[in-house]
């Protein structure tokens, strides 16, 4: 599933290509991808409008205009920018025409979703969840991070996966930031020292910024809006490397299930 860095790369590209362009037509090819309102209202409301801005909160993409269009890519969703001669990908469910260019949403497994309305109304109908602070929000200071997590009795992995506390993190980058912080993902947040939680936050910012700079991790399905792969998968230190040697101490990386997710860590470097 695309996480914050992958979604941020997509948002930056969309912002450059899609803002302030009139939407000339909307094709909804599969109605159940539209979570709110009806597919026909979704299409008729968007047609003739423009997006004044495109932003991100956690893993959600927000197309801002008279109404906000919200997109969550799910596990296998893609937003692709198509030139006039570009073919439409298989499993394409929505095509938004911006003059001669098109913005297409495809999703083989159909866990992704789109919705349209005011942000308050989308929260009310549960098309947009109540999200915690974005992981890269400047207001998520060390003090705020500490207040959010010091009394959490769940594991580091479960706590950081909770989008209602901090939004944007997933399996890949939680494993990576836990390794860089020297903390096992199975530890409970409340059992850590304050300095440990501070290292988690610092590692989170470092890992996310690095992944954005490298245009995300293309491990399975992720591609940017031009269908290009990211490069961060080449720099991952623990995720997906269970049974291989630690890049720091050369011991064998272990893999176990934590918070229902496959989790890789170093038993020597992470305490």
**Which class of the largest domain in CATH terms?**
Alpha Beta
Query: In angstroms, what is the radius of gyration?
Result: 20 Å
Number of domains: 2
- Biggest sheet statistics: 5 strands, mixed
SSE succession: HEEHEEEEEEEHEHHEHHEE
Given the helix and strand composition, which structural class is it? alpha+beta
| Number of E-type strands | 13
Please state the second-level CATH architecture of the largest domain.
Alpha-Beta Barrel
Can you give the helix content as a percent range? Answer: 25-40%
| Poorly predicted runs of 5 or more residues | none
Helix tally equals: 7
Strand content: 15-25%
Structure characteristics:
271 residues, single chain, 27% helix, 7 helices, globular, four-stranded antiparallel beta sheet, 23% strand, alpha+beta, Helicase, Ruva Protein, domain 3, N-terminal domain of MutM-like DNA repair proteins
